[in-house]
Amino acid sequence: MVRFITSLFFIFSLTLFYSVYISPAFFPYIGLITLTIPVLLVINAFLFISLLFSKRWLSILPLIALVLGWKFVGVTFQVPSQNNAISEDGLSVLSYNVALFAFKRDKDTPANPQNVLKWLQDHEADIKCIQEFYQDYSTPSRNAIKILGTESGYEHTYQIIEGNPRNKSYGMAIFSRYPIVNEGRVFDTKRNNGVIFADIKVDKDTIRIYNAHLESMSIQSETLNNLDGIKENYRETLGKLKRGQVTRASQLGILEEHMKNSPYVNILVGDFNDVPYSYTYFTLRKFMENAFESAGSGFGFTYNKVLFFLRIDNIFYEKPLKALRFKTHKEVDYSDHYPISAMFDWQKPLRKKQDPEDQ
């Protein structure tokens, strides 16, 4: 019986470890199954220790599973680094899904939107990428572009997803202390998701910043606020999770192609609506580094709801950039996401190829 159970978990573990490379477009529920990977790692660790103390050769199977699955430990938890040095020439980047600055909750918490804007205004990041950005030109206290941009000395690009460009709208924004020399959108869904980019001139280099908000689960916040709501609507919730997985796989293909055609070194930040044990995460991980893995600590959870154990916001980057520090700002409790930030070393030339003006 022990041999059967050990062999079963071994085969199941290897299957799941490989499944993160399979697109949900071919197997829609694959992303839901991979959520059990942390549990499998714990089970294999228990089996290995138990069988090792029993001096049974079967201990080799969970050991192999642990070795092959070790990469999932690194994407889950990071030991705090002792190196806290920050380069004077570093570049700081912030990403924050602000949930429309909480304006929908304005009647209950009238000061909250201003608190979000004040925190963003005071945060000393060189580049600030905001998802679910809300702009209201008609109300001075909600004129986020003026407050975070012109009044704070930041250039900006704001790509509208829905609304009136001269009145009220929402979309995605990038604010930069450095000149923005080019900008655009990769795609948008005409709902609340999309990807935009900005080419930013930093000293003699140009870097491309992508601000992403990939397809969400379209699950109402009220459902996720309590476990009873999740249980009562589990069929509908599973369907939305499946559709989200498939849509994100399609969006990822568009984004990946766009980044590969970028003439500059890329930084990709945002709300990916996917956990580290996913096709989205491991596809990006094949050609980009993740700031949490490089310079983070702890679990780095970024979701501010009952499912607090989710890390769905990320900062990816390409070499020769090097992440010196990564932080999840859990002290900032204004949205259903926590802000995340990273500091990058800015010592080496970064251009993939020469700018036309330099040739």
From TrEMBL:
<feature type="transmembrane region" description="Helical">
    <location>
        <begin position="60"/>
        <end position="79"/>
    </location>
</feature>
<keyword id="KW-0472">Membrane</keyword>
<dbReference type="GO" id="GO:0016787">
    <property type="term" value="F:hydrolase activity"/>
</dbReference>
<protein>
    <submittedName>
        <fullName>Endonuclease</fullName>
    </submittedName>
</protein>
<dbReference type="GO" id="GO:0006281">
    <property type="term" value="P:DNA repair"/>
</dbReference>
<dbReference type="GO" id="GO:0004519">
    <property type="term" value="F:endonuclease activity"/>
</dbReference>
<keyword id="KW-1133">Transmembrane helix</keyword>
<feature type="transmembrane region" description="Helical">
    <location>
        <begin position="29"/>
        <end position="53"/>
    </location>
</feature>
<keyword id="KW-0540">Nuclease</keyword>
<keyword id="KW-0234">DNA repair</keyword>
<keyword id="KW-0479">Metal-binding</keyword>
<dbReference type="InterPro" id="IPR051547">
    <property type="entry name" value="TDP2-like"/>
</dbReference>
<dbReference type="Pfam" id="PF03372">
    <property type="entry name" value="Exo_endo_phos"/>
</dbReference>
<keyword id="KW-0227">DNA damage</keyword>
<keyword id="KW-0255">Endonuclease</keyword>
<dbReference type="GO" id="GO:0046872">
    <property type="term" value="F:metal ion binding"/>
</dbReference>
<dbReference type="InterPro" id="IPR005135">
    <property type="entry name" value="Endo/exonuclease/phosphatase"/>
</dbReference>
<keyword id="KW-0378">Hydrolase</keyword>
<feature type="domain" description="Endonuclease/exonuclease/phosphatase">
    <location>
        <begin position="94"/>
        <end position="337"/>
    </location>
</feature>
<keyword id="KW-0460">Magnesium</keyword>
<keyword id="KW-0812">Transmembrane</keyword>
